[in-house]
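About this split. The held-out portion is used to measure sequence recovery: a designer receives only the structure tokens and must propose an amino acid at every position. Recovery is the fraction of positions where the proposal matches the reference. Here is one held-out target exactly as it appears in the evaluation file.
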């Protein structure tokens, strides 16, 4: 009887902690990050955490690419999942995601001996516009049917950017973990896709803009690479 009571006392907090981690109620908090760490390192549990069919019924889709004009490169990737922990848009830290994607991008380029990319405000705005557009049309074709790079030239208003080289990576995923985890997951998907990877390590690019949007279920992230004309 004493053993049973002790076992129950131990089991209840374990079950409660597992429920908190899976439900993502504490996502984005210090306690939530601690739970993420525990879930990542527990044997068996960590495997279910990353590969459970709640989060991965739709696998990472292959790259879709097409031939474009000289000095234009464009790539698209999609990571879809069926489970979600819906948050309000205000609960997504877009700047944290942007900063982390930039850090991951430049860290990878550094391992190749390449110069770091700097943020360009016009490319950043273009990235945000494109991230928003991919909510309705997840494609390198804009909702109005135009080439994605027309976002830089279709009006006298920003974003405007005269370029020698231009490129775009698109990614999306069901939001189910912390902002940092989602940013890294989408970035890792790009790295594992040859076309996206080549954009990231393209030595011709000198600047970048990173766009983020969220529709209450899916997180959309865009990398807009460029090299100015002058």
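Reference sequence for scoring:
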């Amino acid at each position: 009887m004493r053993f049973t009571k002790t076992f129950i006392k131990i089991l209840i907090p374990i079950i409660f902690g597992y429920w908190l981690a899976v439900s993502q109620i504490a996502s984005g908090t210090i306690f939530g990050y601690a739970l993420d760490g525990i879930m990542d390192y527990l044997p068996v549990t960590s495997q279910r955490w990353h590969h459970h069919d709640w989060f991965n019924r739709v696998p990472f889709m292959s790259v879709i690419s097409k031939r474009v004009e000289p000095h234009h490169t464009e790539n698209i990737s999609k990571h879809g999942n069926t489970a979600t922990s819906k948050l309000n848009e205000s609960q997504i830290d877009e700047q944290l995601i942007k900063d982390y994607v930039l850090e991951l991008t430049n860290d990878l380029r550094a391992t190749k001996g390449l110069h770091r990319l700097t943020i360009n405000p016009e490319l950043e705005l273009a990235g945000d516009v494109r991230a928003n557009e991919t909510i309705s049309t997840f494609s390198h074709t804009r909702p109005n049917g135009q080439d994605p790079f027309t976002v830089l030239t279709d009006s006298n208003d920003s974003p405007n950017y005269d370029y020698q080289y231009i490129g775009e990576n698109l990614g999306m995923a069901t939001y189910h973990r912390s902002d940092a985890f989602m940013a890294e997951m989408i970035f890792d998907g790009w790295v594992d896709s040859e076309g996206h990877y080549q954009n990231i390590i393209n030595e011709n690019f000198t600047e970048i803009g990173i766009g983020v949007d969220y529709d209450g279920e899916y997180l959309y992230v865009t990398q807009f690479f460029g090299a100015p004309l002058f």
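Annotator remark: DSSP finds seven helices and six strands in the chain.
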